[in-house]
Fold each of these.
Amino acid sequence: MIKHFLELADYSSAELRELLDMAAAQKKLYKEGGRDLCLSGKTMVMLFEKPSSRTRVSFEVGMTQLGGSAVYLRPEDIGGLGQREPISDLTRVLNGYVDLIVARTFEHSSVIELAHYAKMPVINALTEKCHPCQAMADMLTIREHFGRLEGLKLAFIGDGNNMAYSLAAACMRLGLAFSIAAPAAYALPKESVEFLKKLGDGSNLITTQSPAEAAQDADIVYTDTWTSMGQEEEKHQRMANFKGYQINDELLKVAAAGAKVMHCLPAYRGLEITNEVMEGPQSIVFDQAENRLHFQRFLMKYLLEEGTEEGMRHEA
Ligand code: CP
Ligand code: NVA
């Protein structure tokens, strides 16, 4: 069976815990100067419909550290995924060239279609629906800071977007309580909330419009941009509608003592987070950014060692 990494719900709690354990072990190896050239000679293509700094660099560096190489296709190189040619044609061409696809797309259905035709693993590097690599790097970071995941509470302040969805999924699977404060028009859709609740074994998932209610006693207070990629035309409206959905010193007063502040970045200081909080002692935003590299480097190794059908690429 080819293993893909499209969304966290596709993995059980035990599998996600195992991925975190193995990623942590590989991080330790690297930090101690060890190297693992297990993907020597392997190649990956990165299909990106949207801009990226962290995701692109961490995947490329990760693949290089494992001994493989990466080809990056910018939005203008692809000419619009599914527009210059059907995704099914492009994927079947790539089947003959590379060992791994990392894709950042607008529609989530695009990564599903890539995975359908691919004879190699496909990794979701962000879609409109979710950002599973970021959420797993975040879980690794939380575990490093708190020494555990189970029983913690993560409060998300802001848009019920791809980040909120993936963090909620991660929390449900890994035993954290999740609360989200969003304006009514930007809440996580009801169907998503029902689906996400079922991923857990009774972990709390609370939705509210009140940032203070969501952040009450939270161990982690997390936010993301009010305007995601692809929503630029709504920016002014969103800036008005999200006013007050900000992580600032006042909000942190209701969180647990020693609460940590997280942001997937890029951050817009003065909007969803103040400069003081972003640069303050509770912020762990750069630790989570670094862990993108450590989690994804391990993920590539895992998917290529565990999740490919040897020889399939050359059968068609
Ligand atoms: N957090 C994140 O995915 O950042 P980039 O958009 O820069 O890749
Ligand atoms: N919600 C943001 C996340 C960026 C990493 C976006 O989709 O643009």
Amino acid sequence: MEPAPTPAFPLEHEVVGTVDRVELVTVRLPFVAPFAISTAVWTVKEALLLRLEADGVTAWGECVADPDPFYAAETTATARHIITDFLLPLVAAGATLGELDRRFRHVRGNRMAKATVENALVDLIAKRTGRPLHELLGRPRARIMSGISIGLQDSPAALLAAVEEAVATGYHRVKMKVQRGKDVEYVRAVRERFPEVPLMVDANGDYTLADAEHLARLDEFGLTMIEQPLSYSDIYQHSILQQRLATPLCLDESIHDLDDAAAAIALGACRVLNVKQGRVGGLLESLRIVAHAAAHGIPVWSGGMDETGIGRAVNIHLQTVEGFTLPGDTSETRRYFAEDIVEPPVVLDAGGFIEVPHGPGFGVTVVDDRVDKFTIHRERLR
Ligand code: OSB
Ligand code: MG
């Protein structure tokens, strides 16, 4: 008899079981401090959570969409619609995650909604079989690198104070948000005070190709990369810009799936990739992107979306995968929330590393009282 073909990626052959109860819960957690990027300022984290129950096991998936379309086109409301009306009806007991992934392709785009369903099903499968997520990914438990994303600040002095605290905490690299008018002089201030800290900037699409000469002024600061300088939907113009800059470009918003990543790499539009599993449709698509990038010598790191402890835990497990060679946007819980909905919180160890949470599934415990306290909407679907 022919041996069964080896699945191309871990997760693909995992089987979805029956689900007894399905709920969508929207939580709103206050941020410790407002988080500003070139297109938005957020003072609270609003997240859509998918809660599954089966055989007394509870599993969760967090959607990374914001309530507004200022970072990505999807919102918590569009995700709720797509999950309820199109994705959940495709989930059938007995199907593998690989089959489900193929079914989900019939629904175009909406990758944040897809990731939410995939994540919750992965958590359920992992918990039912008593395995931690990194084990489903075929990876040993390991510590991962840390990184911080510092939002736009009112002055270079305020930025320096934030970077000072980040360096003192032990983060492996610092990312600072930039926008027109808050770029070269802000970066210069940080570089003069911290000549050695691994530093990068993220513009969230605030510039155009006409700014190429201005952006080239950043080359003198030895940045590890410039993230998404041009439009949220562009790949081609980034390939032109990359030819004019010594600093590597990194794409975030423009990459929704493996095809986008492959196009960006083929065009030379970036030399680094930010993989947010919640943006690209989930863990399985992330594995494909990371494998493709590694095969083409492109380093990858895990971005973040200011997730609660649920999504944060997923990002941490994913970073045990080979190919995540750079520190990502994975920071301590206390940087975002005075009180999170999970235990334990994410903390840095003495070396600035983050431990992968222990236990089945994502390895964190969702505290029901806290979910209740922060819930603004709850709906039972099944
Ligand atoms: O562009 O990476 C981004 C947060 C929200 C939306 C977009 C971005 C970010 C971050 C913060 O930079 C990442 C994090 O700390 O989770
Ligand atoms: Mg970004």
